[in-house]
Amino acid sequence: MVLWTSNLTKRFGGVTAVDSVDFSLERGELCSVIGPNGAGKTTFFNLLTGVLEPTAGSIEFAPARDGGVGGTDGSDSPNGRIDITDAQPHETALMGLHRSYQITNIFPTVSVLENVRVAAQAHRGSDSWQFWRNVNAFDDHYAEAEAILDRIGLTEYADRTAQNLSHGEKRNLEIGIALAGDPDVLLLDEPTAGVSSEDVGQVTDIIEDVAADHAVMLIEHNMDVVMGISDRIAVLNRGELIADGDPETVRNSEAVQRAYLGGYDGTEETPDGDDTATGVSA
Ligand SMILES: Nc1ncnc2c1ncn2[C@@H]1O[C@H](COP(=O)(O)OP(=O)(O)OP(=O)(O)O)[C@@H](O)[C@H]1O
């Protein structure tokens, strides 16, 4: 396991955007977070990455790398789990929990290669030990950026300014920028939003490739994408985790079907009174 939440809750005034969520993520798992509009998906990501502070509950993270920056008290726990409940976004990013925002982290007038190179430098530059040890760090950042461009299929556009990429290519560049931070967990926010249907496959191929050696969480509205690439799907509705399982389990969940039809009020019972038979805890 790499990430855990316990009783994670966020309230905005009278609205409980995330409601007592117990969740954990395996290393190497590709987990989609879905739910109707306003279900709490973005808030959940914002809590995980430290953009928002929880009202209640806790978040723990187990970075794979040696010499992680530690918890907010500066100490690693003996079992490798660090309490990141109160960590700031730059701290969670340094530890290896990376969020890609919808294109907003791309420098539009800079080349594709430079976009990734700067991200690699920003990450490596934070590690002063490595900086002093390696006098060729600058070349290393280029080499790393070139390897990432190869992985995200943008080598031939390395010198193109980022603003001249197609929307789908920009989404891939965004993943490349996140990869330059050497993440353990990559959180992707609607990676196929705005991508033409013919380019969606290209984006999902890259996500699946990245998921081979990273844990990936994605918020995604395209159900074909979700059902096609997820190992696991977590479903939020009105802040509650109403289902969490493999695509087949979630597809067959009555609670999920009700939530998407708009009839779910979080208190109904199924006709047989037992949602757990479908792997759903409503
Ligand atoms: N900063 C905020 N202040 C007040 N209420 C908020 C704030 N952010 C989110 N909310 C509310 O919390 C609930 C969950 O919102 P959130 O954006 O997390 O849902 P979502 O599942 O990401 O929705 P969508 O799919 O529409 O983007 C909504 O009722 C929303 O109005």
TrEMBL record:
<dbReference type="InterPro" id="IPR003439">
    <property type="entry name" value="ABC_transporter-like_ATP-bd"/>
</dbReference>
<keyword id="KW-0547">Nucleotide-binding</keyword>
<dbReference type="InterPro" id="IPR003593">
    <property type="entry name" value="AAA+_ATPase"/>
</dbReference>
<dbReference type="InterPro" id="IPR027417">
    <property type="entry name" value="P-loop_NTPase"/>
</dbReference>
<dbReference type="Pfam" id="PF12399">
    <property type="entry name" value="BCA_ABC_TP_C"/>
</dbReference>
<dbReference type="InterPro" id="IPR051120">
    <property type="entry name" value="ABC_AA/LPS_Transport"/>
</dbReference>
<keyword id="KW-0813">Transport</keyword>
<dbReference type="GO" id="GO:0005524">
    <property type="term" value="F:ATP binding"/>
</dbReference>
<keyword id="KW-0067">ATP-binding</keyword>
<feature type="domain" description="ABC transporter">
    <location>
        <begin position="3"/>
        <end position="263"/>
    </location>
</feature>
<dbReference type="GO" id="GO:0005886">
    <property type="term" value="C:plasma membrane"/>
</dbReference>
<protein>
    <submittedName>
        <fullName>ABC transporter ATP-binding protein</fullName>
    </submittedName>
</protein>
<dbReference type="GO" id="GO:0016887">
    <property type="term" value="F:ATP hydrolysis activity"/>
</dbReference>
<feature type="compositionally biased region" description="Acidic residues">
    <location>
        <begin position="266"/>
        <end position="275"/>
    </location>
</feature>
<feature type="region of interest" description="Disordered">
    <location>
        <begin position="261"/>
        <end position="282"/>
    </location>
</feature>
<dbReference type="Pfam" id="PF00005">
    <property type="entry name" value="ABC_tran"/>
</dbReference>
<dbReference type="InterPro" id="IPR032823">
    <property type="entry name" value="BCA_ABC_TP_C"/>
</dbReference>
